[in-house]
Amino acid sequence: MLDRIALILTIIGGINWGLVGIFRLDLVAWICGGSDNIVARIIYTIIAIAAIWCVSLLFRDNDIIDEKRAAK
Fold first, then answer.
1. Angle in degrees, CA 57, 21, 48, rounded to 5
2. How far apart are CA 35 and CA 50, in angstroms?
3. Are the beta carbons of 6 and 50 closer than 8 angstroms?
4. What whole-number distance in Å separates Cα of residue 41 and Cα of residue 16?
5. What is the mean pLDDT of the chain?
6. How far apart are CA 50 and CA 72, in angstroms?
7. Are the C-beta atoms of 5 and 20 separated by less than 8 Å?
8. Contact 40, 32 (CB under 8 A)
9. I need a labelling partner for 55 at 20 to 30 A (CA). Which of 5, 40, 48, 64 fits?
């Protein structure tokens, strides 16, 4: 479950960066009233932690994941 949450947050972060790159619109900053706002900084930090967590997905053994699915 934690993997899915981290992946969703990372996707949201990627979409936000896409908006910044294409339209110069930082959606998180726009919603929170600026990028210096404490709420925006917390959101940025949570998304960064989620992205770091997703790096671990690259190095996991897929057999373990497949065994869990087969057990269900």
1. 35
2. 19
3. yes
4. 14
5. 90
6. 26
7. no
8. yes
9. 40
